[in-house]
Write a structure and sequence with these properties.
The protein is mainly α. It is 62% helix and 0% strand.
Length: 204
C-alpha cells in the first residue's frame, strides 16, 4: 500500500537551516526523470516531488515568457504572484489541486519533452550553477517569494511597458531558483526592488 505523499507545509525546516548536501544539477535530474518514465506510471505529483523546489523556478521561467503576449500577461502575472505567495508562506513544492497532481501522464511524450529540454538546461548551466549555498535557507526563499509576488502584481497592472522589466527579473529569479544559484537570486532580488521603485515612481 502506498504511503500518502507528504504535505509540503509539514516539511518545514528551521528558517536559517542550510542543506549540508550540495544540490545536483537540474540537467541530471531531468535525465533521471526521463529514465524513470520507462519504469513506472508517471504523474505530476511524482515529478514535482523529485524536482522539489525546482518546480518554482521552472514555472516562473515559463510563465514569464507569456508576458510578451497581450492580455495573456494579466493571467501570467496573477499566476506568478500566486507562486510567489506560496514561496513566501514556506511551501517547499508548488501546490496544485490533487486531481491535477495525480492524473497519469503520457510517459513517452513526457520522456521526449524531458530529453529535448535537457540540452537547453545544460547550456544554461554553463553560466548558472549552484553557488552561495546559504541562500538555500528557507528564510531566503520566503524573501524571494515576497519579491516575486510583488513583481507578479506589477505585471498584472493594465499599463503600457510596466510588465517587461519585472518579467525579465522573474526570468532571472526563476533561473536562480532552478539551479540554486545564490548570486543570480540575490542579483534578481535587487533588480526587482529597483523595478518596483521605478514603476511606483512613474505610476504614483
Amino acid at each position: 500500500m502506498n504511503n500518502p505523499a507528504p504535505d509540503p507545509m509539514q516539511e518545514q525546516p528551521a528558517l536559517f537551516t542550510v542543506p549540508e548536501v550540495k544540490r545536483s544539477r537540474t540537467s541530471d535530474v531531468l535525465l533521471e526523470l526521463a529514465e524513470q518514465t520507462q519504469q513506472a506510471s508517471l504523474t505530476l505529483r511524482g515529478m514535482t516531488e523529485r524536482l522539489g523546489d525546482r518546480t518554482f523556478g521552472m514555472l516562473l521561467v515559463l510563465l514569464s515568457v507569456f508576458n510578451i503576449v497581450p492580455l495573456v500577461s494579466l493571467l501570467a502575472g496573477l499566476l506568478i504572484c500566486i507562486l510567489g505567495l506560496q514561496m513566501a508562506v514556506g511551501l517547499r513544492r508548488v501546490w496544485l489541486p490533487k486531481a491535477i497532481l495525480d492524473r497519469e501522464l503520457p510517459k513517452e511524450s513526457v520522456r521526449k519533452a524531458l530529453l529535448a529540454f535537457e540540452p537547453k538546461v545544460r547550456k544554461i548551466e554553463r553560466f548558472v550553477r549552484p553557488r552561495w549555498q546559504f541562500t538555500e535557507a528557507p528564510i531566503v526563499d520566503r524573501i524571494n517569494g515576497l519579491v516575486i509576488a510583488l513583481l507578479g502584481a506589477i505585471i498584472t497592472l493594465p499599463l503600457p511597458l510596466t510588465n517587461l522589466g519585472p518579467a525579465l527579473v522573474v526570468v532571472l529569479m526563476g533561473l536562480g531558483l532552478l539551479e540554486r544559484d545564490g548570486v543570480v537570486q540575490v542579483g534578481a532580488a535587487l533588480l526587482g526592488l529597483v523595478a518596483m521603485g521605478v514603476v511606483f515612481y512613474f505610476v504614483f
